[in-house]
């Protein structure tokens, strides 16, 4: 074979390699199969469950809680013990026999740190070890003294005084609602509804139908509007957290609870709002929801996966009607086409994830459009991996119900 032939052969093989590496899984695959594939891929990337979220050492974090929720849901669906073992390994790494939790400090009053309590309750139901119960009680005790706004809304963190963020509703409310059900504290259902309705009161924008990321009751933050206290923009993932919180707390709030209809009202409001800004071509959502045409904005996978989960679950549970189903299906297919890629080692990845975003802090985050599009974008961030697994499970359920 001459040199020219070798060059042509090498070029062909390289093209074949990269086309395989970046190809998407076929849309004919069952959603359940893709949920399993994504979970197994992430376990391969993170052999120890504490390694999730690119960690170099163990940390008690909301991202781990999110992923453990997804793995437990997959365990309940498939009965595959490897998912339960993976979840238990994280719990046993973090929770000491005394009930103390590694890296957790109650006095920080960080609502993010409460979020993993939900998976811990569900694990305790499967594996009733005393240390889990002690840790669950510890997390519950934080919320008994957690700082609040004048109307009783939980501050996002002690270091972010007087502020409610959409993110915080996912971090605290599902845990409290589940705790209320499992440990006979029905007053927590009232608490959860109250938190949801405070956000509905302060964060909702009637013109767009969307919810602002943050609200500062004191109006002291530079990002806060001096009149309304609201942050300037509608960040996709923030609204995704809120949407997931709504459908998740309804799993635990009793059917006859007086506040349940209020939550259902907000579910419908969120569903109608996000559909207005779903990208017509792809079925996905932008990093800054209402500014899809603005230069620098991009289709973002974690928000898209969260909204897909929210829509399918709300349809499956009967919270919204089937008129939303076409949008849910389009979103799911859009994720597969635009964000899910096969890798050369046989795993799959989810791409285009905003790594992090917030308000205030040091360095200061001003909530501007320029800020939101400046945060790093990466693959396989748990804030997209977990919601994709859960969205696929809900898509599987929807297709079986049709």
Give the SSE map.
Elements (H helix, E strand, L loop, with lengths): L2 H19 L9 H15 L16 H17 L2 H14 L22 H10 L3 H16 L17 E3 H17 L4 H17 E2 L4 E2 L2 E3 L19 H14 L10 H17 L24 H16 L8 H14 L1 E3 L5 E3 L2 E2 L14 H6 L2 E2 L3 H20 L1
Antiparallel strand pairs: 1-4, 2-3, 5-6, 7-8
Helix pairs in contact: 2-14, 3-4, 3-5, 3-14, 5-6, 5-7, 7-8, 7-9, 8-10, 9-10, 9-11, 11-12, 11-14
Report on this model:
The protein is built from 14 helices and eight strands. It has 402 residues and is mainly alpha-helical. It has one domain: Glycosyltransferase (Alpha/alpha barrel). Strands 1-4 form a two-stranded antiparallel sheet. The chain has a two-stranded antiparallel sheet with strand order 2-3. The N and C termini lie far apart (58 Å). Keywords: Hydrolase, Signal. Residues 1-23 form the signal peptide. Pfam families: Glyco_hydro_88 (PF07470).
Provide a brief overview of the structure.
This protein has 402 residues and is mostly helical. Helix content is 53%, strand content 5%. GO terms for molecular function: hydrolase activity.
Q: Give me the number of helical elements.
A: 14
Number of DSSP E strands: 8
State Rg. 21 Å
Question: What's the pLDDT, averaged over the residues?
Answer: 95
Number of domains: 1
First and last CA, distance: 58 Å
Q: Characterize the quaternary organization of these chains.
A: single chain
> In order across it, which strands form the biggest sheet?
1-4
In CATH terms, what is the fold-level topology? Glycosyltransferase
Low-confidence stretches: 11-22
* Main β-sheet description: 2 strands, antiparallel
